[in-house]
Amino acid sequence: MDRPREIAPARAGRGTGPWWAGAARRAWHRAAGITPGGRRPTGRFLLARMVLLPVLALTLLALASVAYFTLHGRTEQLRDRYTPALAELTHSRVALTLARYEAERRLGAGDGGPLRQTDLVGLGERYPSLLTEASQSLNNAAQTGALRRSQEQELRVVSGLVVSYNDLIILAGTRQERDGLRKAGLAYAADLLGDGRGPDGSTAVLDRIRALERELRADAARLSGWHPLTAAAAAGAALTALVFAVAVAGTLDFLRGRIRLHSPLLTVCATPVLLVLAMLVFGVVGQHRAQRYAGETVGALAEVSADRGRSTGIKVEIDRGLAAERDIEDAREELAGRLERALPPAWTRLSALALVPGTVGALGCGFTLFLYNRRHLTILWRTL
Questions:
Q1: 77 near 142, Cβ under 8 Å?
Q2: Is 35 in a helix, a strand, or coil?
């Protein structure tokens, strides 16, 4: 009886191995013009690459530029608009708080009476100086360009309420001999100004300023980080860069394998495109660092306060005011220094100028292949 034949193991076919290995192999064959029968016809292949490489390079530069300059524009808004606006609002809040302490100290809030020298010098020089600083800071905040129209209207309301607060304080100062009117004026003024710790929706001046600060911090947070446009442009640039690099490498391999030609000129033309891409990538990283620093500064300004707590006395008030001023200036100076280290001032200008050699290199890729393909194009034209 015949013995059963053994079935030989199946040979490993093309389907074995990871899927990505087969995809990468097919992509390389396509990039290098490799076919089952050898190589693609020289004329048609180089004609396609004459168009493909410049298009890929220009698309790459365009997408990278959109990602970089969009981030740069947002960083400039954070640096030149939102951070100064928040610093000015913080300064006005501190100045108004100190002005309230000074007015109440001189006019005798609560159970105390007015200071003796108030009859001679009135509210003194410190109170009007602080109130002037607060009004000027509110005007400066409105001029930064960071506020929306509704926020500008709110800021005008706050400025008007500051004037009303000053009128109540002056009224209380002119009624020093009548405790009832003086205390009523101080109480109305205190309710109008508030303490910055009121509930949401409070109409007190300091609470309104706090609400504006919260809105600006939220707007600044929305400007930071990745957005749909920058994310899509960056992802498209990364994908295009990969395709461009593989296409250049495949074209060089085709030139060597098909017509025995080494092409340093094509490499030289493609290099500026990739260098400009690297420069823009470095700029994008710097922009993100700058935005993170701006966010930290915005958060630090929110913590600045001149509240005296349970302590009283002019020395405590002056010390708290000076400390708050130092905190504001330190935050702004630290942000300026960090931005300069994270993103040199000339980097944006150099990035824009670097697009010129990148564009020349992109067009040079196509012209180089045209020079290599002139004879084949003539033959191809005649055969059509």
A1: no
A2: strand
